[in-house]
User: What shape does this take?
Amino acid sequence: MPRLDSTLRAVTSSPARAARIAFAACLALVIVAPLGSRASLHAQAVPAPAPPAPVTLLTDRALDGRGGTLQGARLGIAAGRIITLASTDTARVIDLRGYTVLPGWIDTHVHLDSHFDKSGRIATDKEPALEQSLGIAQAAWATLMGGFTTVQSVGDLAERPLRDLIRDHGFPGPRVLTSLAPIIGRGDSTGTPEQLRAMVRERKAQGADLIKIFASTSQRVGAKPTLSLAQLTILCGEAKALGLRSMVHAYRGQVAVAGRAGCTQVEHGTYAAREDVEAAARAGAYLSPQVGLVVQNYIENKARYLGVGNYSEAGMQTMLRDLPLDFDVCRLMMAAPGGKVVFSTDATAGAHGRNADEFIGRVRDCGVSPMQALVSANALAAGAMGLGDTIGALAPGFAADVIALDGDPITDITAVRRVVFVMKGGVVYKWDGAIAGRR
Ligand SMILES: [Zn+2]
Assistant: This one.
């Protein structure tokens, strides 16, 4: 019989209640740290929680995040890290045998700021700041509950206080990296070379973890190029000089342009030709197609989006009509020599917490093997974010980000929707005791 301390027992006996308590306690932080304020000043009164006591996770089958499988690993967790795969410590044990255990997933492209307001429609900048804060916090919570322990959110200034509260003060949510506000290409009027560099430096000074760049207009309004090779070379080059990565929203030939400009990661890729995809892969860029979630979510929630920004009926129809072209681009990316196809959902309102649906799309509509799809959200995604030594693998020294699935995703990819256990940094945020008891 596994022994659990009182905290874990509370979570086990009533996961929903424990989650609500943790969430409610942390809302106080949001309320005293409205957007645009310096969260750190307000949050000083709430110290970071002490790390939980060491614990051993019993597993019978685990995926190591790098494409390997571990049999009978006993993960020793202490101070938020995995210290061994062969723990003999039985003082505190969580029994995950019967489930598939793997590293917490990493989504390299989400929009945590995107949420529905209290009327159920996509929130705009007219939403009261407090409600915006709660919306973004809820998106973060849903994402964590979906098994994603790290996300890259690109981007909005509101992601900074969220990132900092989660990182420094125990606020519940995935580890967040953020680009803050993106740089939006506007052709020649985007700025002079010096102005372009200044845009990158400004974001670095604001605390951005990477630079997000729009080099094409939205697919809903034509997917037209908005930045030249010279402009992108300046932007991505400046980012690199400052030690930051760059992520580029690109369609058609802009995929190749972003690769040639030395940008780190190229998103979407719709309407790109084989040569464009191969050029970007050859340049070493990480490639990110979306096939399983973002468009489907827009269509499912269409009525909540229509009429705001560029969300029009025609634009939605274009995305739906061209979804099979996204499947084709995904296959081109997978087939490109040296292609590093990383996990990236572009999750917006309605999609948070369902990020794992992208795995199902990758397997079903892009021909990716389940193991490859899973690794794209573990070791490969960690590498794409410059965190390959700290997250994305079950190995000694890595962060104790561990999830468990009810089922085997290698034989049934829909098991990714059945996340029963979530640990991030050694803290248990979800453990479905009811299912645990059936063994
Ligand atoms: Zn996006």
Notes: The first strand starts at residue 55 and ends at 58. Residues 109 and 330 are 16 Å apart (CA to CA). The radius of gyration is 21 Å.
